[in-house]
Amino acid sequence: MTAGGALISVVGARPNFMKIAPICAAWSAAQTDRAHLLVHTGQHYDASMKVQFFEQLGIPEPDIDLGVGSGTHAMQTSAIMQRFEPVLDQHRPAAVLVVGDVNSTIACALTAVKKDIPVIHVEAGLRSGDRSMPEEINRVLTDQVSSRLYTTERAALDNLTREGIRPDAVCFVGNVMIDTLLTHSKQAPGIEALTLGTGVRADSSNGYGLVTLHRPANVDDPQVLRRLIDALCKVAQRLPLLFPVHPRTEARLRAQGLWDQAQAHLELLPPLGYLQMVGAMRDARLVLTDSGGIQEETTALGVPCLTLRDNTERPITVDQGTNTLVGRDPERILEAVAQALAGAGKAGRIPELWDGRAAQRILDDLLPWLEVHGA
User: Catalytic pick from 91, 214, 246, 373?
Assistant: First the structure.
C-alpha cells in the first residue's frame, strides 16, 4: 500500500485511553505505510497517569501533547481548538480519529471538519436522551460532523438515522473498551494485593461491593450527595464497600462535611489505576456507579451493576447486560442491593461483537476507507 496522509488519533481524558489502546495496537500490527500520530490534549493529566494508563495499557508515547489542562467546558474546549489547529496545519492529515464523548472529542472534531479534514468517530450513536449532560451534547455534535462512524451496538444506528446520518456512513464493529478489558483482566491484581497495607477490611473471601461516584449531577448538589452517602453507608452495614474516591468527589465530600461520615462507614481509597480498577470490578459481588464505561465493563465481566442515574447512554447494558438503573432514591438503591445480595442480581449476557476484536474490525474498514475518502 502506498503511504498517504497520516491518521491523527486524539485522546484527552481517562475514558479515552482504554478506547485508543487497542486501536494503536491494531495499527502497529497492520500492513500499512500510512503514519499514525497520537495527540494528547492534556484534558486530564497527573503525574501518575503514565504508569496507570499509558504504561499499563501499552499506549505509545503521544507524538504531540497540547497541555491544555483543566478549566470550564468553554475554556477547555476553546483552548483545545486553538492548540489543535496548528497541528492540523503542520501535518495535513488524511483524517482525524476521535473516541468517546469528552471535550477533547468535540473540540478536535470541530477543528478538523472546519478545515475540511474527515472526522472518524469511534463509539458513535450512543444516546441517553438527557441534553443536560455535557457528554450528550458532545456525542450528538461529534456524530453530526463525522464522516465515518463506528458503533458499539446495533441500536446506535437507529439513533443516528433519526438524526439524519446516512446509514452507509455507519459501521457496527463492537466495543473497543472491551478489547482492552479482555486483554488485561487476567493480569489485574486481586483485592488483597490492592488493599495491602491500607487498613481496608474488604476481601474477596467474604465479598465486597465497589463504588464509583463522580458525575456533577450526583456530587455537586449537596442534598443529592448527602442522600447517596447515607444510602451507601446503610449498604455498608450489609456488605463492605470499597470506594476509590475521585478528586472532584473528595472535594465535594469535604466541602459538605460528609467526609468523616464516609470514612467511618466506607472503605475509602485514592483513585485506582486501570488494572487495579479492573481487578476490583472483576472480584466484586456488585458495583454501584454513575460511570458509563463501568456499566459496559461490568456487563462484560458478568458482575451485577447498579447505576446511580435515571438514564444511560448505554441501554444495551440494561437490556442485555448486568446493569440496573436505580437512580438516586435511597429506598430504591437499598432494595436493588438486597436483591443482588440475595442472588437476584442480573446475570445478563455478553452483547454482540463484544469479543475483543473491535479494533481489528475498525482497521479492516478504516484503511480501505482512507484510500478513498482521506483528505
Answer: 214
